[in-house]
UniProtKB/TrEMBL annotation:
<feature type="region of interest" description="Disordered">
    <location>
        <begin position="1"/>
        <end position="78"/>
    </location>
</feature>
<feature type="repeat" description="WD">
    <location>
        <begin position="195"/>
        <end position="236"/>
    </location>
</feature>
<feature type="compositionally biased region" description="Pro residues">
    <location>
        <begin position="46"/>
        <end position="72"/>
    </location>
</feature>
<dbReference type="InterPro" id="IPR015943">
    <property type="entry name" value="WD40/YVTN_repeat-like_dom_sf"/>
</dbReference>
<feature type="repeat" description="WD">
    <location>
        <begin position="150"/>
        <end position="184"/>
    </location>
</feature>
<dbReference type="InterPro" id="IPR036322">
    <property type="entry name" value="WD40_repeat_dom_sf"/>
</dbReference>
<feature type="repeat" description="WD">
    <location>
        <begin position="236"/>
        <end position="278"/>
    </location>
</feature>
<dbReference type="InterPro" id="IPR001680">
    <property type="entry name" value="WD40_rpt"/>
</dbReference>
<protein>
    <submittedName>
        <fullName>Os02g0319800 protein</fullName>
    </submittedName>
</protein>
<dbReference type="InterPro" id="IPR053053">
    <property type="entry name" value="WD_repeat_protein"/>
</dbReference>
<keyword id="KW-0853">WD repeat</keyword>
<dbReference type="Pfam" id="PF00400">
    <property type="entry name" value="WD40"/>
</dbReference>
Amino acid sequence: MDLLSAAYGATSDDDDDGAEATPTPGWAATGYASAAGPPPKRPRWEPPPYLPPPPPYPIPQPARPRAAPPPASTASGRYVSKRERALMAASSSPVDSSSPLPPSAAAQFGSPVVGSISDSNLRADIFHSLRCQTKPGSTRRMPLKLSVSLTGHTKAVNCVDWSQSHAHLLASAGMDHTIHVFNVWNKGNTTARVFKFHTAAVKDVRWSLNGLSLLSGGFDCSLRLVDVEEGKEIKVFKEDQAVEVIKFNPSNSNLFLSGGSKGSLRLWDIRSGLVTKEYQRNLGTILDIEFSSDGKQFICSTDTSRSNVSENSIIIWDTLRQVPLSNQVYTEAYTCPCVRYHPFEASFVAQSNGNYIAIFSAKSPFKLNKYMRYEGHGVWGFPIKCNFSFSGKELTSGSSDGCIYFYDYKSSRLLSKIQAFKEPCTDVAYHPVIPNVIASCSWAGEIAVFE
């Protein structure tokens, strides 16, 4: 009891600075009881109402003023709790928004401009070939020698596309959410741009017919137009489906067609950013689309899992009237991941998951040629694409065995094949100026250019 009385009689360090200490009465020190009894007990300490801790950086909106906690080394010697010390430490060192990011974050949010897109540092022979503008079909030499290997993608590359106006640039779209632009024959850094505007896998990328801009679509349900020279995003077109494929209208560079996972086909106008036409037929996933040379018709191939197998696998559409001209073109029980018009003749081909390429007439009634097909390569469910050379004399296809196969268009005879990758070769693209140069990409993220 004496100890408790002494403790309650002592002066607390939480008292106001101006208050004087009360002397300890003699009855408490001697231990004898007094008639007056012990002094009245101090009122119970009540904690102050809880206030949320201040943020570590200033907020522009007005806040209710309150006194800042005193520092730990105050003259009064008051005890400072851990919470108060932490708050004082945070308030004394606010976060600086201009401080440099860690290396990983800086790389993630850094500028997409990582190299040059100029043709001033190209190989001499390539520079000369680009300036001479070799006529398509002037040579029948096969591109059998590896010219350049391009790296940068960490996952599968879905497609590659050469620039028509700047033929030394190659764009690629990958499952790693990125788009790469390569200055293919640059003597220094071959990677010119790396765009990370998409938040999911990028399925297709196409150079605009108006110059140095790229249009891409991906699994984040968006189409994005990018200025390659400035490295900036120009416009975003929102979709309600994952975008599988995009193609520009060859007769109007301001219009492009998109197809996606819900089977919707939409014709967009870049200038307004709006859909001008929509082609509805309750289709499965759109696998590929291809415009005719005049832009009046287009072909689409679809996944027939949600429709009749004998119909809708390949559909020819009238672009202006939005009606199908034929939907019973290909009646085999296979999907076609790629369709291509011949550059000059009235025919088109379709890459079939039956491990061959079928050929059709491009005139109504769009009949299948049952007596000729291009076979020898493998598809086996991979999105393997094929392409005509610019002369139209060769048809080239990727393959599930990693090879590139070259066929004679007229006879369907296999001319040659080269082992490009160990993983499936997913796309091949002929150079727009140099006829014996072809770019290819693989399921492992590799890109190779042959000449």
